[in-house]
């Protein structure tokens, strides 16, 4: 039974996330075309490719390094508003992991809660505004519950993933009030928010590393 | 068809910054990556509050032209009409800080506001205090409902940089400078008109077309159209209408004092700008509004847009003293 991600596993998590988003790029781009200006997928994969290059140049040594590198890359290169917000999201994971030996349920819950607070403060988006917050908020709640129920790592990751996916899917029925989709209104209905979907992909990459709940 | 003096348009911002640095004889340094411009003179007092501004390129001489004694300590240029990144702003602020903290002067646009706010959080972890003054003087983008991104920031930012820069040189602390910046901003409004849009480097066409008999009334500085067209008219007819737009929201009345900025938006000639200022002087004289100080010229552009803006800023003795204090930057010196 694993109690937390080891340094090798946080690396695998980030590598897996990069590969997952690259595979999903056509879908993310298509969703963004229906709800925004169509550059979301390209911006994400450009920043993630730079992350991969930076990780090759400076291989991670600390538990938090993979998140730290991803955060700095997004804050350095990505324009628009969702890129810098993703940078701040990964930064909370770097902070929670920094100097630790493993990234367990406590760290995961803390990083997700702090990430939610930071993104809401900076982006002033609420639940229901059709943004990445719609995936993060239910994941944060699910993790709090999992932690107080004493769930193991796989159980907590599963709960976060399920909640984030449900939240992301739900954005297809929301009218945008913040972000790009606020300009197109009802034209975006039926398409999920690509930022929220990317948050779900982030938890999905975590689950691939820990494996499914054993029972 | 527009043409520009460029090599590869994608290299223009960096090539311009390289040329800008070379022209400053070592007084200003350009850091290439992350890109920012910082004072390199030795006259900076330990503990002086540092002033940092930034925003998209394409508005030159803003902001890099205002780096120097009496104004900014650093400026952070983004790509053309795009916010600089948080990491650029953080690096510039670290380079500018001399122990007194940093004031960020930010034109109110979603991307700029977000990246400066993120930079302030990153700086907090560096042990550097950064507070922002958001400049939102553009009357035409005032929706009045408090929803959305709010009024855009335009030429009043020059006054905020000049006046706060002087306050920092005389030794005001961070909280005083932030309060001063916010006071100037709340008493400042700008209205802009255009005869022709600017064209992006490497693009042959301007970002919008206008008929010969109309002007864009309430135009922005990023190639976006105004909500209104207006019939083309002589300056004696246009200027009073522009003044109305600026004066009313400020509630300026007889006997009140202002600092005025008549600014060219890129390709409007000084001859025209002085003619506009002449009209402004006459209109305000008629209304009993006193112009304490005026700045007339090309200080904030929207690439090669043909157009102008009129800014009025509520003034008082303290602001006049700060305005008159010496300043020595590439684009503003006295």
TrEMBL record, chain A:
Q: Which residues form the DhaL domain?
A: 8-208
One GO molecular function term? glycerone kinase activity
Q: What does the entry give for GO biological process? A: glycerol catabolic process
**InterPro entries from the entry?**
DhaK_L_YcgS (IPR012737), DhaL_dom (IPR004007), DhaL_dom_sf (IPR036117), Dihydroxyacetone_Kinase (IPR050861)
Q: Which SUPFAM superfamilies match?
A: DhaL-like
Q: Identify one Pfam family in the record.
A: Dak2
Q: Which residues form the signal peptide?
A: none
Q: Which UniProt keywords apply?
A: Kinase, Transferase
Q: What's a GO cellular component annotated to this UniProt protein?
A: cytosol
Domain of life per record: Bacteria
Spell out the protein name for this chain.
Dihydroxyacetone kinase DhaL subunit
From TrEMBL, chain B:
Question: Which part of the chain is the DhaK domain?
Answer: 8-332
| MF terms in GO | glycerone kinase activity
Alphabetized UniProt keyword annotations = Kinase, Transferase
GO cellular component terms given for this protein: cytosol
Its BP terms in the Gene Ontology are: glycerol catabolic process
- Does the keyword Kinase feature in the UniProt annotation? yes
- Signal peptide span per the entry? none
Q: Which domain of life is it from?
A: Bacteria
The record's InterPro entries line, in alphabetical order, gives: DhaK_dom, Dihydroxyacetone_Kinase
The protein's name in its UniProt record = Dihydroxyacetone kinase DhaK subunit
Q: Which organism is it from?
A: Marinactinospora thermotolerans DSM 45154
């Amino acid at each position: 039974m694993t109690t937390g991600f080891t340094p090798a596993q946080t690396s695998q998590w980030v590598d897996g996330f990069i590969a997952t988003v690259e595979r999903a790029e056509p879908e993310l781009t298509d969703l963004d075309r229906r709800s925004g200006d169509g550059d979301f997928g390209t911006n994400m994969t450009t920043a993630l490719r730079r992350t991969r290059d930076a990780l090759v140049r400076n291989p991670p040594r600390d538990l938090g390094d993979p998140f730290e590198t991803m955060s700095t890359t997004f804050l350095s290169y990505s324009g628009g508003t969702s890129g810098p917000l993703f940078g701040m999201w990964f930064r909370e994971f770097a902070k929670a992991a920094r100097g630790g030996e493993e990234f367990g349920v406590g760290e995961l819950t803390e990083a997700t809660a702090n990430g939610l607070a930071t993104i809401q403060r900076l982006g002033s988006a609420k639940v229901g505004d059709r943004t990445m917050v719609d995936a993060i908020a239910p994941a944060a709640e699910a993790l709090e519950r999992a932690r107080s129920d004493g769930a193991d790592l796989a159980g907590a990751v599963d709960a976060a993933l399920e909640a984030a996916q449900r939240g992301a899917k739900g954005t297809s029925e929301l009218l945008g009030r913040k972000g790009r989709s606020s300009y197109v209104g009802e034209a975006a209905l039926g398409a999920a928010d690509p930022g929220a979907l990317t948050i779900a992909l982030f938890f999905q990459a975590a689950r691939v590393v820990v494996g499914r709940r054993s029972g | 068809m527009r043409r520009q003096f460029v090599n590869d348009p994608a290299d223009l911002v960096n090539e311009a910054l390289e040329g800008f640095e070379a022209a400053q004889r070592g007084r200003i340094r350009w850091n290439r990556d992350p890109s920012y411009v910082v004072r390199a003179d030795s006259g900076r007092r330990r503990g002086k509050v540092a002033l940092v501004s930034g925003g998209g390129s394409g508005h030159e001489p803003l902001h890099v032209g205002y780096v120097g004694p009496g104004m900014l300590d650093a400026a952070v240029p983004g790509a053309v009409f795009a916010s600089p990144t948080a990491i650029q702003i953080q690096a510039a602020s670290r380079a500018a800080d001399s122990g007194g903290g940093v004031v960020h002067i930010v034109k109110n646009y979603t991307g700029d506001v977000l990246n400066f706010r993120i930079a302030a959080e990153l700086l907090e972890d560096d042990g550097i205090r950064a507070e922002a003054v958001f400049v939102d003087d553009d009357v035409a983008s005032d929706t009045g409902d408090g929803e959305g991104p709010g009024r855009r920031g335009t030429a009043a930012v020059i006054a905020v940089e000049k006046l706060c820069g002087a306050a920092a040189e005389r030794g005001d602390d961070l909280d005083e400078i932030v309060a001063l910046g916010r006071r100037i901003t709340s008493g400042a409004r700008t209205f802009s008109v255009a005869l022709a849009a600017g064209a992006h480097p490497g693009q042959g066409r301007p970002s919008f077309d206008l008929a010969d008999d109309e002007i864009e009334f309430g135009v922005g500085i990023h190639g976006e159209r105004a909500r209104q067209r207006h019939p083309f008219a002589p300056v004696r007819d246009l200027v009073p209408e522009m003044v109305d737009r600026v004066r009313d929201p400020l509630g300026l009345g007889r006997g009140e004092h202002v600092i005025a900025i008549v600014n060219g938006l890129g390709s409007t000639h000084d001859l025209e700008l002085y003619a506009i200022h002449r009209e402004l002087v006459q209109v305000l004289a008629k209304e009993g509004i006193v112009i304490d100080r005026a700045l007339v010229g090309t200080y904030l552009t929207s690439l090669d847009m043909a157009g102008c803006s009129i800014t009025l800023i509520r003034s008082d003795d303290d602001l006049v003293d700060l305005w008159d204090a010496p300043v020595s930057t590439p684009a503003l010196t006295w």
